[in-house]
Amino acid sequence: MNTDLDKLHPYPFEKLNALKSGIVPPTHLQHIALSIGEPKHPTPAFVKQVLMESLEKLSAYPLTKGIPELRETIASWLCRRFQLAQLDPETQVLPVNGTREALFAFAQAVVERDKKPLVLSPNPFYQIYEGAALLAGAELQFLNCTEATGFAPDFAAVSEDTWQRCQLLYLCSPGNPTGAVADLPTLQALIALADRYDFIIASDECYSEIYPDEANPPPGLLQACAAMGRSDYRRCVVFHSLSKRSNLPGLRSGFVAGDAQVLKAFLRYRTYHGCAMPVPTQLASVAAWNDEQHVRENRALYRQKFQVFQEILGDILPLSTPDAGFYFWADTRPAQLGSDEDFARELFARQHITVLPGRYLARDCDGINPGENRVRMALVAPTEECREAALRIRQFIKTAPAAR
Questions:
Q1: Are 290 and 258 in contact (CB under 8 A)?
Q2: The CATH number, out of the four listed (3.40.50.2000, 3.40.640.10, 3.40.50.300, 1.10.260.40), of the domain defined by the range 59-291
Q3: Residue 403 above 50 pLDDT?
Q4: Three-class secondary structure of residue 123 per DSSP
Q5: Cβ(241)–Cβ(277) below 8 Å
Q6: Does domain 3-42+294-403 have CATH number 3.90.1150.10?
Q7: What is the pLDDT of residues 304-343, one digit of tens each?
Q8: Rama region for 60: left / alpha / beta (φ>0; ψ in -120 to 50; rest)
Q9: Residue spans of beta strands (DSSP E) within 181-253
Q10: In the predicted model, is pLDDT for residue 145 greater than 90?
Q11: Is the model's pLDDT at 402 over the cut of 70?
């Protein structure tokens, strides 16, 4: 067996299940899950219709590179959304079966094992980054994201030796779980560092289409390149998905775009990996990427739910609405109910609500775990269910023994 498998941590939800083990929550209360970032808004009907009408395409093997229509649609969407002057759908776009598998596979393709590779990751982080780095034979170094740093990595504090060893930087903007967004100057500074030290930036932008202000969408890495006059997107690759944007987590559809030379190598890897997207999925994806109305409606629903939580809980549990995304990264200390694990365990036991302890999304680094005393609340359920959750959380805080 691959001994690197022994380096993998249990997934956050395994830890959560262990935390809840043996607890019998109140059965008269319906369970409300705020723990998993799985959108519950309706799937667009027109996407389902295209999928059903395309089922005869299952009779043919799909190409790993995808059909031209999908790559062209993605390129056009990227140019519109991120103000790109050009993007070649033939060489700079590659469809993938959801970004989770692509983010993992990417490290396997780009890490050079014989050069003592180092991969950098935000902390807290999406656990796929960690597994990808370790199974690619790399050392992983975390960059803490705390309230003091605006919940973003302090890149200025990274040593020159670290940058010199770095082969791959995982960037997550908007951040999971913090919702922090990297601005254009930050992205451009990272591009300059990548040029100077010759590493690749893998920018996970899966939450880029969930933001509060319609006039101010989060910028992206390719947008930062374009603003610098760089249409080759050298050393820069972005990852996008329909899961959050279009409420299509089960479609497993996303894409990778950017540096043509990097994508050429990644395509070669994926051809051997055997992960071509079925043609009906590709055609349904074309329909989704071509429509923005359902995405605007999606954002409006999230705005409603954030407002509901603020109105019900704002005076008892300080909540900072994120720059983007659909998570509250809530500080549990004002509730005076113990640690993040205590808060999550007792909330489940008393109110049948599941949230994710923040420490499960982070690692100890530089003497701290930046997820401690925080919980991630995913506002993915319907609005009325979120309202019920907020009311129960308020009741939990007001009546819990430590808060009396």
A1: no
A2: 3.40.640.10
A3: no
A4: strand
A5: no
A6: yes
A7: 999 999 999 999 998 999 999 999 999 999 878 889 999 9
A8: beta
A9: 200-204, 236-241
A10: yes
A11: no
